[in-house]
């Protein structure tokens, strides 16, 4: 989405003074359109269920990662 592209480009801005969060901190993240559907108060109270919970066998299980990163 356009919002996703925008937030990623702001995270990766080469100049640290221009990166997302460099001016007003966390509020810049929370107010970005990418996060418009997130209720941060519910998130802090752990009232939001994760959209995906990976199935893992143990702490060394890398089955959810592409083989490119695990070989």
One letter per element, helices H and strands E, the order comes to HHHH
Percent in helix: 25-40%
How is the biggest beta sheet arranged?
none
Uncertain stretches of 5 or more adjacent residues: none
Commentary on this structure:
- The protein has 71 residues and is an all-alpha fold.
- The chain is built from four helices and no strands.
- The mean pLDDT is 92.
Care to give the gist of this entry?
This protein has 71 residues and is an all-alpha fold. The protein has helices at residues 2-11, 26-30, 40-44, 67-70. It is extended and about 40 Å long.
Could you give the topology of this structure?
Blueprint: H1 2-11, H2 26-30, H3 40-44, H4 67-70
Key features of this structure:
mainly alpha; 4 helices; 0% strand; 71 residues
């Amino acid at each position: 989405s356009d919002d996703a592209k925008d937030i990623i480009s702001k995270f990766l801005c080469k100049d640290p003074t221009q990166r997302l969060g460099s001016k007003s901190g966390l509020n810049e993240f929370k107010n970005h359109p990418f996060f418009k559907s997130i209720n941060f108060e519910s998130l802090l109270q752990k009232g939001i269920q994760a959209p995906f919970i990976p199935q893992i066998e143990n702490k060394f299980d890398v089955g959810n990662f592409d083989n490119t990163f695990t070989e």
